[in-house]
Prior knowledge:
This protein is mainly alpha-helical. It has helices at 14-33, 43-53, 67-75, 91-94, 98-124, 126-138, 140-146, 152-172, 175-191, 197-212, 220-243, 245-249, 259-270, 272-285, 290-310, 326-343, 350-353, 355-372, 382-392, 403-413, 424-433, 452-458, and strands spanning 398-401, 420-421, 438-444, 460-465, 475-481.
Amino acid sequence: MSLNPDQHLDRVKPKAFLIWLCGATLLALVMRLLFLDRPSFWIDEIYSVMHASRLGEGNLTKQFGFLPTYLTLKLFGALPPAEIATDPSSWMRLGVTEWLVRIPSVFIGTLTVFVLGWLARPVVGARTAIIFAFLLAVSTWHLHMSQTGRFYTQQLLFFNMAMLLYFRATSIGDVRRLVASMVCLFLAFMSQPPAILLGVVLAIDWLLGFLDKDARRLTWPSVVAGGVTAALCCGLLAYDIYRNTDNWAQFGQTTSQTTPVVLAGAVWYMNPIVALAAGAGFLCLIQRSFRLSLYLLMVAFVPLLIMAGLAFTDFFVHVRYTFVILPAWLLLAAVALDRISLSLIGEYPFFIRHLAVAMVLVMCIYQDLEYYTAGGGYQPAWREMFDELKHTKQPGEIVYGDFHAEMLGAYYLEEQNAITKVTRKSLMPFLDEATEPCWIIDKVGTSGGLNWPALRDRADLIWTYDRHIMQPYSSIKLFRYTPASTGSE
């Protein structure tokens, strides 16, 4: 399929297309390997190692997402035994490092650029697919998740493979592609259950096909494949919730991001210039392919709006759960950039025609530079803080922190129970009873924060490990509390 009225304008030879796509993939690999181990571990990466060490236990829908971490740690002989899975203090000696935990995401994220670029070609045309691949390669959001030891790149890959395969299959009546799309949707769900939100989009598109009497969508294979996939996903999720009710209930007991943060955060992560270009792409596309424009619009907005709506409830919601919508936005942006460059053919030389493409890519790369430098990889500076603590803390001085500080402290200090776990409510009574100097780690900006307003009046702020960008959940403050009876130092 080509979105260009003049078909010869979209003629990119298969070899040239493959060269461009490989170039985008190579760029993605280099950027994702760059400074991979510079950011500290994030608490969820600690969870990844824990779950990988106990693969096969717990929720069935939480196994496949940790398989790459398990295989990598196993291959390098760094997989912690199940009996010490909850004790990170020995992991460093086993060889567990930031680089090793993140490398699966690097390769999955790099592979995503090639695979989605390849699958996008028959949907949006070769030129647009090439632009899309480069946008994905330099996307800061995708870069960040590709340098994070979690299942999000895996979920995004299968989610968007399903999205592209389904559209192509129902456009040409290809049963094999249709079945492949449902398999990918199931694998996306098994990577992270919220991927089932794509099923909502596919159901809406199928119903619109019913209203339009579109024979290529209204087939028995589509009913059977969609029904079996929905039954499997819903059945497994219901079984997990029934079997591990308390585990799932915790998602209703944790402070969630607000609706404005979810919406604004998604736009900021994908880059506002990309969002603006995507809007222009929708307006261009709706004139040439109404179904495709509406389909990409739904993929871009339905999961986002559902998550924003859930933020009003007691469910835990975070902007990272909307990460899967990124390719839909990039595809729409690529459509706009391709149309702009095509409209200038015959009037201007090559470099002027593609100036808009270059500007958007440069804006994304500028955000990447911010991510690498001031952004610190968008991860809290736990390693730097614990290094400071090791050099300044006196023997016997107690260190208080929340659960995150406890787990990460065990890893970086290589000492079990190095951090005494407290909560916002229990910290102040501990300080009231203290007779010796002690330390407090306050992870500001999350549900685990230990009351920064009260601490600043009672303890000395030793250091702030902040990220000098619009990234609200990255600040760590280190305090030293000296009881009045011991005098100040």
